[in-house]
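[SOLVED] Need 3D model of a two-part complex

Original post:
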Amino acid sequence: MSETASTAQPIPVTVLTGYLGSGKTTLLNRILSEDHGRKYAVIVNEFGEIGIDNDLIVESDEEIYEMNNGCVCCTVRGDLVRVVEGLTRRKGRFDAIIVETTGLADPVPVAQTFFMDDDVRTKTQLDAVVALVDAKHLPHRLKDSREAEDQIAFADVVLLNKTDLVTADELVAVEATVRAINPHAVIHRTERAGIEISKVLDQKAFDLKRVLDGDPDFIDAAKEAQAHAHTHDHDHDHHDHACGPDCDHEHHHHNHHGEGVSPIHDVTVTSISLKGGPLEPKKFFPWIQALTQEQGPNILRLKGIIAFNDDPDRYVVQGVHMIIEGDHQRPWREDEARVSRLVFIGRQLDHEELEAGFAACAAKAKAPA
Amino acid sequence: MPSIAAYDFPEFIETVCFLKDRPAFALADGTLRLPAGGETSLVLHEGGLLSAVYDSSGKRLLTGGEDGRVVATIDGEQIEEIAAIGRRWIGAVAGGPNGAVGFASGRSAYVVPAKGALKELKHPRTVEGLAFAPKGLRVATAHYDGASLFFPATDAGPAMLGWKGAHLDAAFSPDGRFLVTIMQENALHGWRLDDGKHMRMTGYPAKVKDWSWSAKGKFLATSGAPAAILWPFSGKDGPMGKAPIELGTRGNAMVTAVACHPAEDMLAIGYNDGMILAVRFADSKEALLRRGGSSPVRTMAWDRAGRLLAFGAESGEAGVVDIAG
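Solution:
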């Protein structure tokens, strides 16, 4: 007999990106063959050497549908709408869905599908975008393809794979490149895509309640902002290679990431981090809406935690291109500095203009903390 | 007062129909349940069922599954395999005149005449849905940026009907004069086939999931709004320049399924809270057929006599309403 119907929990969806040969299939096979007791549905572009009992592999042609609303960046993956609808009709059939994209895939329409299609949005929750990077070949990839850069820029988690094929110096350089493209992703170094599943699945990177929680850059900034956090202890968890900017084995150029301009040739994506005090909601919302309307095509990802004037709760926002969503997260703690932070990853972003626009949203200071 | 025979199946109900006057429920797990007169269960597809339609011309249920098979059943007891294409999902099925069957998988539509070989119609984009014209062997496919019309008995290329955006399903009007598609963005689109003139049917707050032609094809009833939306198709220009009729409007619920009565101008309307109303076109008079349930009504079908209405919901709740009591 079947169990009684319970309130349907959205099914988490993990998107795996990465250039051809970066190790996606190896990672998928690791995930599926591990004895985890969970059931996965895997959506692939082509049946390859994947195929494990209990899990379902679905082949699907990557197909971009432009929404007929006049917005060029409002694209969804039609195949995902269809397949996800088919997969989610039956309760409890799968614990999670993994979408493997082709090497040349643009991750944006994949992610937007989970926000723009109502059916998909109610039944699933985008968990994280995971990018595999071939440590040896990344420099070449960045020269000849924009997709490789987009995949890194858009990722929540980057697996710097095939570390055994490069020298220590090369590894440091390639990791610095990844950081330059995306200072906010969690980076793991791997050989043959060897990683604990818990570092890849169940990241909740798109959960508004946890916006920027896992962002090493943001954690760092938050620490900075706390007047009493002056100890030099690296008390955070550090048992693997999740190299945050405050990771003590490499202190490469994080202090400058806010400047957004990468010193590395072939990198066109920039990241801009804005920080300020409490904001005025009546100024912030019109500004961010207009900004995402006008600059949407240039914005790959946007995340922020906002302190609003006279609001006891932290307000969190996230966005992909023109899609933006926000919500109250939790009350500010007594010992937390009321700092507003907004980070953008994109192309052709005008740092000064963003800085000025953000500053203009500041609430009139009453008594500065 | 109508009476209900209620059933509770363990799975999402994709399609309900009457097979030899017995209500039959096609579940997403690939089984077909016939609860009346001693429950029977028939396995249509291993893995799961993806698409199912009642073929009124062949008086049978056509289904497509995750197993890459298309099957038909007339009585709910015997299965006829129409086609098997291997490890690919069958996203849509359609029944045509003279026993023809159509189905779609990926970037191909397939047509299987009652006598003759399977024919593949290749497309540059995914075939999301397909439909047969009421007469002759003519097939319309819905895809990104429009619809295509094929005469599959010939080798002629398709006639393209273009309209920007993704088209997810297609239907001919019963008189064969119009083709209508469901779009990804909460709208229908239509073409008058004589001259290709466009018909835009917009204003839905949600995606249209279900549609049903009224007796004699005068109206096309649709879901996707807090009321059932009925577009008039009796005039020369179809719904062009005309406002649709709205029936069964509710403030706090959405229509998820519609089924026009086989003889009278009356519509069964299913809602996302499980309620079902029967509403007369002429005076909008409503009769409550089901008070509500735990999930949206997914599918409804009348029996031939128009006395029994079978319904199935997403949670597996189902039933047969006898409107004569």
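Edit: Chain A touches chain B at residues 1-2, 5, 47, 56, 58-59, 61, 63, 65-69, 76, 78-79, 81-83, 86, 89-91, 117-119 (CB under 8 Å).
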